[in-house]
Design goal:
alpha/beta, Rossmann fold, eight-stranded mixed beta sheet, six-stranded mixed beta sheet, binds 1,4-dihydronicotinamide adenine dinucleotide, lyase
């Protein structure tokens, strides 16, 4: 019998090698047809049982990446979800109860449903290389493991390690997975097949859970640990906005004594989550992220050498990040001490990123070369300029370096506010100038805005987008207009927050209102963190627009040198990198505060749509989510407007305009939403 997605190979030791190569897909995913075929195969194998079954991937890019998220989006009712989950459970249970030994031979990514299949096997052997990772990242899509993975991962790795992996959704490298007990062996690629065979033939005993894990799993102890877990989760995600981790904790607390029952309850729990708005919106965010990635896939541009000019806050970190991502980088600054600072900060970044992997730290350091005299200019395929935000200074640098630049090299500026057209006037080849606007801190912010000026050529633009992807960022194409997308959207929201402080409302309450909406950080804390001087200069650039006035409070704080976190005092006092907040602060109507901030945010998003700052609603939402952290579970501002109702929200805007003035005037875009 032949199958579309699976190939069965029997060897002379009566071992059945079950090869998965999902048809019409670059990656192995557990589509319905893949599972249906697997069900048939298992039913057949039960009739003439082999000595063992080894699951193998025939794709070069991994084992199994998980369930098919497209199919996920087609589910609209609890019943449909439950039916899908029961089908998955039935197959996983069948694999688990096969009388012969089963082994998952994991090479490359093994995630979500793929990991759940591996967990249903008797053993898991994992390839010891950098590209192989295992994980149960379902929480990132607003659900938790739904093919028996919650029960089986806890049985294998113990509650603390397994719950931690599921609650954070993080991916695990071989050593961590082996230490936890999620996989049974970790071997170099050349020994992978031999190791899988060894497990089938020898059936070594399984490692028992440690006593401490057994205690944690005890029904008297579970409520205490579960409460601790809830507290930890609450620091990152509220129950109201992200129910999945809380449901997973409940599941474990209530049912771990009876694994069969827990499996059944897992189905109920996930079925109720799948149809929830949060999961639907997080799936949307997943696809938006993929859309951003594809922006960088249109060209295979990989610069051999990058030259960064400016070793300050941004240039230093940009240079370090590029070296970390494998590029040879020279970094130039007019001040030698700035370069010394860059090298020191880079070392910290590499250590944070690579931890004990000394080789990767050393190799990244070797790729980063301080270059006081700018020798790198003539070798570079890409020059990134991140010097002072001053048109004259930038232009005199361009005039100096352009004659020495390689034919075809790109000149990218990290400017936050100077129009590219103005900068380009001094260039002989203005088509090679593009904006690559990074966000601070470079290592943590996933988005880069790739800015097209009037003169930027298509070729330069596509190469810059491709470069954004090469350094593992999400590249967003934007028009060269004041504030681009992210700063432009953020500023009215921040300014409204500052306005409220001027009215005497406690910063703590303003931040609380924004957090309740689902923002990752309150606007006042954000302004203090970015620096009030930086906020002021961006706000001034944008204040030419009709809707943005600079609050007086902001002016006076900057004049008095209270710039926020960096000076120890801004709207908050800062100590050891943390804002000191007044826990007793109170305010009657948080909803009003929230509406004032969010409505300005949404209004600006609609204006950007009308002006075509970014092409397409999906990319606007994507840019805003990954650039500002806009509550991901709401699926992006434009999507949120549609979900809440255009009429309801524009009516609210009009009420706010009556109460607070013209800055709440609805953008014309609302009429066409
Ligand atoms: P910074 O003041 O920390 O660093 C600028 C560096 O450039 C200094 O070390 C200075 O010595 C060097 N420099 C100035 N003129 C030079 C020249 N002619 N040749 C060589 N080196 C020169 O500034 P920061 O914050 O890193 O900003 C740099 C650029 O990045 C600006 O255009 C800014 O608008 C933009 N930006 C800043 C962000 C931030 O959060 N600070 C965020 C995104 C963009």
């Amino acid at each position: 019998m032949s199958y579309k997605n699976w190939k069965i190979e029997k060897d002379d030791e009566d071992i059945c090698w079950l090869h998965l190569d999902v048809a019409d897909s670059s990656t192995n995913i557990l589509r319905f047809d893949v599972l249906d075929e697997l069900d048939d195969i298992i039913n057949d194998l039960v009739q003439s049982l082999p000595a063992g079954i080894i699951f193998v991937s025939d794709k070069s890019n991994g084992f199994i990446a998980g369930a098919d998220i497209n199919e996920f989006t087609e589910i609209t009712t609890y019943e449909q979800a439950s039916e899908m989950l029961v089908r998955g459970h039935t197959i996983m249970n069948k694999i688990e109860s096969l009388p012969c030994t089963t082994v998952a031979m994991i090479n490359g990514f093994c995630l979500g449903g793929g990991m759940e299949l591996a967990l249903a096997c008797t053993y898991r052997v994992m390839c010891d290389n950098k590209s192989t990772r295992v994980g149960l990242p379902e929480v990132k899509l607003g659900i938790h493991p739904g093919y028996g993975g919650s029960v089986r991962s806890i049985q294998k790795a113990g509650p603390m390690a397994a719950m931690n992996a599921m609650l954070t959704g993080r991916l695990l490298q071989g050593r961590a997975a082996k230490k936890m007990g999620l996989v049974d062996d970790l071997v170099p690629e050349r020994q992978l097949k031999r190791a899988a065979r060894y497990f089938v033939i020898n059936r070594p005993p399984h490692k028992e859970l440690a006593i401490k894990d057994k205690i944690m799993n005890h029904r008297f102890v579970r409520p205490l640990i579960a409460n601790q877990m809830r507290k930890q989760v609450a620091k990152k995600a509220s129950k109201q906005h992200y129910p999945a981790p809380y449901k997973l904790i409940d599941l474990w607390q209530k049912h771990m004594d009876n694994p069969r029952r827990m499996l059944e309850k897992e189905i109920e729990s996930v079925a109720s989550l799948v149809t929830d708005d949060t999961a639907k919106n997080l799936v949307r965010v997943f696809f938006l992220m993929e859309e951003l990635k594809t922006q960088g896939n249109k060209k295979d541009f990989k610069p051999q050498h990058i030259h960064v000019i400016g070793g300050g806050v941004m240039g230093g970190d940009i240079a370090a990040w590029c070296a970390l991502r494998g590029f040879r980088v020279t970094v130039q600054d007019q001040k030698p001490e700035a370069l010394a600072g860059t090298m020191k900060r880079s070392m910290s970044m590499f250590k944070r990123k690579f931890k004990k992997d000394k080789r990767s730290i050393r190799e990244s350091m070797d790729r980063l070369i301080p270059d006081t005299n700018g020798m790198g200019v003539k070798h570079a395929d890409l020059i990134i300029e991140a010097i002072f935000e001053d048109k004259g200074v930038k232009q005199s640098l361009y005039k100096d370096i352009e004659p020495r630049m390689k034919e075809g090299a790109i000149l990218a500026t990290n400017t936050s506010s100077i129009p590219l057209e103005e900068l380009a006037t001094c260039l002989n080849k203005p088509d090679r100038l593009v904006g690559i606007h990074f966000f601070n801190p470079v290592a943590l912010m996933p988005l880069v805005e790739i800015v097209r000026g009037n003169n930027t050529s298509d070729e330069t633009m596509t190469r810059a987008l491709a470069f954004g992807r090469q350094i593992d960022k999400l590249p967003l194409p934007v028009k060269s207009s004041p504030g681009f997308l992210v700063n432009r959207i953020l500023m009215p929201y921040l300014m409204e927050a500052v306005e409220m402080v001027s009215e005497g409302i406690a910063p703590e309450m303003i931040d609380k209102a924004a957090l309740q909406f689902g923002m990752p950080m309150g606007p006042i804390e954000l302004a203090d963190t970015v620096g009030l001087d930086v906020c002021k200069s961006v706000a001034l650039i944008l204040s030419g627009g009709e809707t943005l006035d600079l609050p007086k409070k902001m002016q006076s704080m900057v004049e008095n040198g209270n710039l926020g976190k960096k000076t120890g005092k801004g709207f908050y006092k800062w100590s050891k990198g943390k804002a000191i907040k007044d826990k007793k602060a109170s305010y009657g109507n948080l909803q009003e505060l929230q509406d004032r901030m969010i409505m300005r945010f949404l209004n600006e998003a609609t204006a950007c749509k009308r002006e075509g700052v970014v092409e397409g609603d999906g990319l606007i939402d994507a840019g805003i989510i990954f650039g500002t952290g806009f509550a991901p579970f709401r699926g992006g501002p434009l999507h949120y407007i549609q979900q809440q109702g255009v009429h309801e929200l524009s009516a609210r805007l009009s009420q706010l305009k009556d109460r607070y003035g013209a800055r709440f005037s609805a953008d014309d875009a609302w009429n066409s939403l």
